[in-house]
Amino acid sequence: MTDRTSRRAAHWSMALLTTTMLTAVAGPALAQTGEAQLEELVVTAQKRSENLQDVPISIQAIGNDRLEALQVSDTNDYVRFMPSVTAPTGAPGFSNFYMRGVASGENNNHSGPLPSVGVYLDEQPVTTITGPLDVHVYDIARVEVLAGPQGTLYGASSQAGTIRIITNKPSTQGFEAMYDLEVNSVAHGDIGYAAEGMINQPLGDRAAVRLVAWAQHDAGYIDNIPGSFVFPTGNIRVNNASQVENDYNEVDTYGARAALKIDLDDNWTVTPALMGQRTEADGGFAADPTLGDLKVRRYYPEGSDDKWAQAALTIEGKVANFDILYAGAHMRRWIDTDSDYSDYSYFYDVTAGYGAYTTDNAGNFINTSQYIQGRDYFKKTSHEFRIASPAENRFKVVAGLFYQKQTHNIEQRYRIDKLQDLIEVPGWPDTLWLTKQLRTDRDYAAFVDGTFDITDKFAITGGIRFFKYKNSLEGFFGFDKDFSSRTGVAACFNPTAIVKGGPCTNVDKTTKGDGHTYRINATYKVTDDHMVYATLSTGFRPGGINRRGTLPPYDADFLKNREVGWKTSWLDNRLRWNGAIFFEKWNDYQFSFLGANGLTEIRNGGKAKMKGVESDISWLVADGFTLNGGMAYTDAELNQDYRPSPTSPIEAPKGISLPVTAKFKGNLTARYEWTWNDMDAHVQGALVHTGSAFPDLRTADRAVIGKLPASTTFDFAIGVDSGSWRVEAYAKNLFDDDGQNDRFVQCAASVCSRVYTIPIRPRTIGVKVGQTF
Length: 773
Fold this sequence. Notes:
Layout: H1 3-6, H2 8-26, E1 42-43, E2 50-51, E3 59-63, H3 64-69, H4 75-79, E4 85-86, E5 98-99, E6 117-121, E7 124-125, E8 127-128, E9 131-132, E10 140-147, E11 161-167, E12 176-186, E13 191-202, E14 207-218, E15 223-224, E16 228-231, E17 236-239, E18 251-263, E19 269-282, E20 295-296, E21 303-319, E22 322-340, H5 342-352, E23 371-388, E24 395-415, E25 431-453, E26 458-478, E27 507-527, E28 530-541, E29 557-570, E30 575-587, E31 590-594, E32 600-604, E33 607-622, E34 625-638, E35 664-676, E36 679-690, H6 699-705, E37 711-722, E38 725-732, E39 740-744, E40 756-759, E41 764-772
Parallel strand pairs: 6-11, 15-20
Antiparallel strand pairs: 1-2, 3-10, 4-5, 6-7, 8-9, 10-11, 12-13, 12-41, 13-14, 14-18, 16-17, 18-19, 19-21, 21-22, 22-23, 23-24, 24-25, 25-26, 26-27, 27-28, 28-29, 29-30, 30-33, 31-32, 33-34, 34-35, 35-36, 36-37, 37-38, 38-41, 39-40
C-alpha cells in the first residue's frame, strides 16, 4: 500500500471537519433575514440571450465570478465541476470530452472518429479532429455545458452535447484593467507560477478594445527514474541514463487574446478578434504504478509543443425587427510531439522476435527501440449565418446556414537509430514506419428552430437540421517494401506522392453522407419560478475512412435522446434546483481500437443505451453563505453483443458497461463571504467525487488494463478583497488523493502488458495576488 493510499482513510474525516468549520463560521449568518437573492445567469445556449431558468435544456453554466472562485484555468479545472462531462487527458491540450456515457473507448488517433462533443469559443467551433483546443480560462464570462444531442443548433460534433466558452467582450462603458499573479507548490513536485492581465479601453463612444494575456508555468511531479531492459533478440541491453530527471513533466503555457468592438450605428456591431496560445510540455504524464507513486521509466525524450491561432469575426445587427448574425473564423494549429515507443518494440520482440528484422547495415543486432516524432498541422475554417425573430413574439424562430472545413496534415515518424538503409522508408533516414497523410472533413448544414407559445404557460419547440458531410483521407502510411510485402510502399497504387513528403500513395479514399437531425420540446411553466419540459432529440457524427485498405469506411452513428427536466427557483430565488432524467439509444456506434500491427481500426458496433439523472443546486443559505452542488448518475451499457465481424467471437457482451464514464460523479461547494476590518473576506471548500470506470470496452482488454479507481478531492481557499486589491490562498486536492485520469497500454493489450496510468495533479498549494483598476 502506498503512502498516498494510506492517507485516504483520513480524507473523509478531514473533509467533514472542514465542512463543519465552514458551517460554524456561517452560523451567525443563518439568523439573518436579508433580501439577497441568487444572481441571474444569462446564457446563449439557444442562440439568443435568455435567463438560464427559462431554457428547456439540461444546461450547467459557471459564470465569471465562480470560475475565479474555483481557481479554474484550463479544461481539467472546469470539467471537474461538470458532472455530465468526462475528459480523459493524456497531456495538456490532448483531452477528449464525453457526455452522458456516450463513449466506446476511442484512442484519439488522428485517423479515428470525430469527437462526439462539440466545443465552441464564443460563436466559433474549436473542435479539431483529435480533440478541442485547451483554451486558457481568464477573463471568461462563463462556460456553458449543454448535455444531450445538440444536433439542430450545433451540428456534427455535438452528438452527445456541446461545451461553450464565452469570453468577456470589449465595453465602451469605461476603462477597466486587472492583473493576477500566482505562485504555487505541487506535492512530490516543484514550484509553479502564473501571470495574467486584462485591459479594456474605450475608443470613443462607439468602439472599444479588450486585450488579455497570460503566462503560466505548471510544475512537474512525475520522476523518470533509472532503469534498463534487455531485448531477447541479440541480448541488447538498453538503459535510460540520459533521460533520468525528477519532476520532468513541467508545462509552460502563454498566449493572448484581442478583441475590437465597433458599433457602426445603433443597430450594427462588428467584433473582430484574434487569439493565440502556445503550450510546451516537457516529459510525459504517464506513471508506472509498479515503480511506486508518480514514477516512470522512459528511454527517449517525450514532450509536446502545441501552438494555435484563431482569427474570428462576428457581425451582429438588425433588419427590421429581426436579429442578424454572421460568425466566421479561421484557425491554424501546429503540434510537435515526441514519444517513447520502447514498449512496442520490446513486447513484440518478446512475443514475435521483432528484433531479428531490424538490424544495422552490417546485419548486427541493434537497440530496436522505437520513438515517435509527430509533426501535425491543422487548419479549420467555419462560417455561420443566422437570423432570429424577436424573442417577445408568441412565435419565434432561429434559422441559419453553417459550413466548416478542417484539414489535418499528419506526419508520424517511427524511428530506430542506426536502422539499416535497406528497410528505411525511402527519403526518411532511420524511419521504420511513416504516416504522411492529409485528412479533410467538410460539413454543410441548414437549420431552423422555432418556438410557439400556445398559452402563457405552455410552449412547443421544434427544430431540424439538414446536413451533408464529405470526408477524405489521402497519402501514405506504412513500411518500406523490403520490410513488408503487403503494407506501406508495397501497397502503393500511385508512385506519385499526393501528400508532399510521402514516398508514394497507398491511400486515397472519400466518404460522404447526408441526413437530418431534429428536436421536439414541450415546456410548461407551472409558476413563474417552476418549469418542466420534455424533449425528444437526435444527434449524429459523420462517418470516416479506415486507412487499412482491406477495411471499408465506417458509417455515421446516431444518438436518440428522450429527456424530461425541470428548472425551479424557491425561497424567493434563494434556492435554485434544476435537473433532468434521460434515456438515450446509440446506434451503429463508432468503435476505434488497435488492430493488427498496432494499426488503428474503426468499425461500427451495434447498439448501446444510456440512462440516468443529472441535477444541480444553488442555495443562498444565508446572506453571504452559498452552497453549490451538482451530480450525475449514468448507467451506460451495450444493448447487443459486440463482434468485429458477424463470424468473430464476442469481444464485449450485451449488458457490459460502456467505458470512460463513471456511474456517479458529483461535487459540492460551500462559500462564506463576510466583512472584516473594512475588507471583503471569504472562505470556501469544494468537494469533487468521481466513481470508478473501465477505460476500454472489450473484456479481454479490461482484464489487462484494469479499472480507473474512484477519486475524491477537496479544495480549500481563503482570501480578502480590500479596495482594488485581492489576496487569496488556496489548496487544490488538499488531501492528495491519488486518482487517475486514464489507464492504457502502449500497443494491443494482447501484446503489451505494461499498464500506465495518468495520475491527477497532486496536492497544489498556492497564493494569488491581484488588482483591479
